[in-house]
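User: My collaborator sent over this chain with a note saying "see what the structure looks like." That's all I know about it. Can you take a look?
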Amino acid sequence: MSSAGQQQAGISYIPATWRDLNALRQVESVCFPKDAWPFWDLAAVLTLPDVVRIKASAGEKMAGFIAGDIRRRDAIGWITTLAVMPEYRQAGIASTLLSLCEERMGMPRVRLCVRRSNLAAIRLYQRRDYRHVTTWPVYYTDGEDALVLERSISQPAGQTG
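Assistant: Without extra context I'll predict from the sequence alone. Here is the result:
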């Protein structure tokens, strides 16, 4: 992704920074009312090294956000959060954020976890060749299980780990 980001249907995809903390807090609270990350976790995801963070912006508004944790020692990337505001869903934003994050992490495998009941997200991940690898019982605060999904990423020609 170039420093200028990418454009798609009025949405720009650019790296997120600590300056996006308040907008990200809003996205998290709307998209994950039961599971929104606390302030310090959001500050960390926007500042720690080895984290890919990309926002989808519609003008000045954050329409979506993704973060990916690069774990080089394990040769795996973890999508730690992916959220799209309700009014921007079904426009390909989540899929674009996922593609960009996978590419930027540059890992041969990518994992994520998703609520067992989040069928729309599960369908998106299945369309992108994510496969169920394990279940984390009682993962979420309300006791719901998390499905851990994984995708093998083909490394682009000429790119080395």
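A starting point for your reply to your collaborator: The first strand starts at residue 6 and ends at 8.
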